[in-house]
Amino acid sequence: MFLPSINTLTRLIIALSLSSTLLTSCVTVEATAKSKRSEASQHIGWMVKGCMAIHNHDLRAGDPVVIHARDNEFRDMKGTISSRATDAKGCDPLLEDRKSVNLLTGAAFYHVAVPASPTQPAPELAIVTLDKGFSTRGLDYHYCFTSKGVNFSVVKGSDAIWQGYYFVATQIPATCKLL
């Protein structure tokens, strides 16, 4: 039977106490902001070429969404969930070279039916909100490029209420400004 020395037990108790204190402090500091972001993450996601990532695993075909495109102009359009995306067919974020990183956050992926016309093509990138049970009044939608992906954000006034990241696995010109 292994019996640790007093010195080992003391170190273990100190390490556990310190870890517990640090974890509690982190949770306390972020509690309010995290709960707001958590609520928003159920209603806001990012979309690439008709494939949406969102932290909501309960969406169904036909659920309405609003697509907030910020290509050459600001435009909002209606769409609907078509089906759950489980592989890379029609869902670039699930391509083999980027799938593992894009799945890290636990997001669910969905195909979104996006209305397109010659004058209003479907957006390549967009932020998507569920069109039920969530107010988008006063929200501003932004995205910029890092060297390996896209940072998406939604702000209300001066508060960031949601952030998302799409890893693209290739080098791209960065446009995000450092704060």
Overall tally of structural domains: 2
Quickly give the structural class: alpha+beta
Question: What's the story with the biggest beta sheet?
Answer: 6 strands, antiparallel, barrel
- The geometry reads as globular
Radius of gyration: 21 Å
What is the average of the pLDDT values? 80
Helix content estimate: 10-25%
CATH topology category name of the largest domain:
Elongation Factor Tu (Ef-tu), domain 3
Q: Briefly, what CATH class of the largest domain?
A: Mainly Beta
Task: Tell me the series of helices and strands, N- to C-terminal.
Answer: HEEEEHEEEEE
Q: How widely separated are the two ends?
A: 56 Å
Strand content: 35-45%
Query: Strand sequence of the main sheet, in spatial order?
Result: 1-2-5-4-3-6
Number of distinct beta strands: 9
- Low-pLDDT runs: 1-34
Break the fold down into its secondary structure elements and pairings.
Blueprint: H1 6-41, E1 44-48, E2 51-54, E3 64-70, E4 74-84, H2 99-102, E5 108-113, E6 125-130, E7 139-145, E8 149-156, E9 159-167
Antiparallel strand pairs: 1-2, 1-6, 2-5, 3-4, 3-6, 4-5, 7-8, 8-9
